[in-house]
Amino acid sequence: MSSIKHLVYAVIRFLREQSQMDAYTSDEQESLEGNNHMKEENYSAAVDCYTQAIELDPNNAVYYCNRAAAQSKLGHYTDAIKDCEKAIAIDSKYSKAYGRMGLALTAMNKFEEAVTSYQKALDLDPENDSYKSNLKIAEQKLREVSSPTGTGLSFDMTSLINNPAFISMTICQSSDLPLAYSRMSGMMTNAIGGPAAGVGGLTDLSSLIQAGQQFAQQIQQQNPELIEQLRNHIRSRSFSSSTEDHS
């Protein structure tokens, strides 16, 4: 008797689910299927389902925003941003689209644009704790990359320290060549994990950054013009990279 009851319940449940699915349009069914794939972390399949839903209803902002979430999970941040922009074009008051665009921009290290997106999301949904938290993170990252001596340097300190042209320029422009060479050698030894580097060596990022900062401060005291030249060089490289990202 118990087995029969279980069978009846299973049949009733199946029929109920079928009737519910029949009430959905084709695009809604595709979107629901995409949501299920997201829960199962099958992000490629989710993208396919949301794409089919968009083809059936290209004016639904939710479908674009959902596909953006799946694209971000796959690391396709540029595609995610494009989907968010399409969602916003359809519904300019869709806070979730701004929030998800902020996530993708942050992942691409475009912190200034991410801050703008999160601020817009909060304007539309002021009580959303997730937007508040993500905005703080993006603002902190932006401060770090904007600071020449911050820990979130926008250039590769390792490459700078190991750059022969930089070493040559530093030594040549120093008023005390032996001292400059000695300091550079010491910094290089610590940076690459030599005897003075201890256990951490190159894997100790904080020590590497600290060493670079100390060296930069020493050079700045001796030759502030050299540091300014380096800053201008870094800014020009950052601008070039930003231009390439937008292409």
What does this structure look like?
This protein is mainly alpha-helical and 247 residues long. It has helices spanning 2-22, 26-39, 43-56, 61-73, 77-90, 95-107, 111-124, 129-146, 157-162, 164-172, 177-191, 205-222, 224-246. It is elongated.
Topology:
Layout: H1 2-22, H2 26-39, H3 43-56, H4 61-73, H5 77-90, H6 95-107, H7 111-124, H8 129-146, H9 157-162, H10 164-172, H11 177-191, H12 205-222, H13 224-246
Helix pairs in contact: 2-3, 3-4, 4-5, 4-6, 5-6, 6-7, 6-8, 7-8, 10-11, 11-12, 12-13
Q: Return Rg in Å.
A: 27 Å
Level-1 CATH class name of the largest domain = Mainly Alpha
CATH H-level superfamily of the largest domain: Tetratricopeptide repeat domain
* CA distance, first residue to last residue: 68 Å
Q: What is the 3D shape?
A: elongated
- Low confidence ranges: 19-23, 150-155, 195-203, 238-247
Helical fraction equals over 70%
Total strands: 0
Which range does the strand content fall in? under 5%
Instruction: Quickly give the CATH architecture of the largest domain.
Output: Alpha Horseshoe
Number of helices: 13
Secondary-structure element order, N to C: HHHHHHHHHHHHH
Structural descriptors:
mainly alpha, 247 residues
Give a nutshell description of this structure.
About 80% of the residues lie in helices and about 0% in strands. The chain has about 250 residues and is an all-alpha fold.
